[in-house]
Amino acid sequence: MSTTIILDCDPGIDDALAIAFAVGHPGIELAGITTVAGNVELAKTTANALAVASFVGAPGVPVTAGCAAPLLRQTARAGHVHGESGLGGAVLPAPGRKAADGHAADFIVSAIAAAHGEITLVATGPLTNIAVALRREPRIAQWVRDFVIMGGSAGRGNVTPAAEFNIWADPEAAAIVFGAGWTVRMIGLDVTLRARATAAVQERMREFGRLGADLLLPALARYADSHSAAPGGRPPAPTNKKEAAGGPPVHDVCAVVSVVSPEVFGYTPASVQVETAGRLTSGMTVTDFSPAIIPNAAVATDIDVDRFWAEVLRVYASLAGAMG
To answer: Shortest CA distance to 121 belongs to which of 18, 256, 298?
Structure first.
């Protein structure tokens, strides 16, 4: 039985790899891609989503553009990490289609309202679209099957010492999302910084034809998140020799993998509050694991890295074969 997902994203190299995984996995039905400004501006995140979806064989998946700026803050970008285009060194054919009409938040609301309990919402960018959708229809928090984000950290950040980029880019939106009454499955830096595309992983990707040669490898080659967090942050120390070998962490792929292979991750219930006022801590996901709290999140605190890459590479190999 397949799992239907909507992927809200800001492609971005790791978002692009997450789209490829979602399209390639036989257990995922990708009902739509919605885009938000984040790693690069909205026009580029939308163009990238269209191009990647078409390239990997999903030209019929609707792509709907959303918010071009945070709710209250000045716009933040991560072009220094993802390159000017957002896809690193990957240059894909033009998709030959435009984004669907309407706004991403409306697409999210209408799709979830029409299929109570059936859609898993996965967000791998700033949470602006999700916050707007919740404002328009708060009941989507009860209507989703599951809600997963790539974002946050129970420890240190990667854009400041306190904050991870997706939350830092729009902390007010994140605060709305964490306070909506659902359980947020938070796949944050605590695990994603361990999911690194090492030299051995990238060598396997060379076997994947056009998928490897035109998307995976050139995108990863220009991914400036290779060995550390962005300036100001300091990631956790690697815990084994494989992690110490380095390579870019594929943060957003983790969120999609968690939907179809939940056993890859270990979770701890927590209360997560988003700091919006702190001068030095804006965007921090303040995470309380104490037993007395009422949890609003399941925070990923462990990852089986070998199992993660076995699943990802298996799906990419299958997708590469389908692409020819």
So the answer is: 256
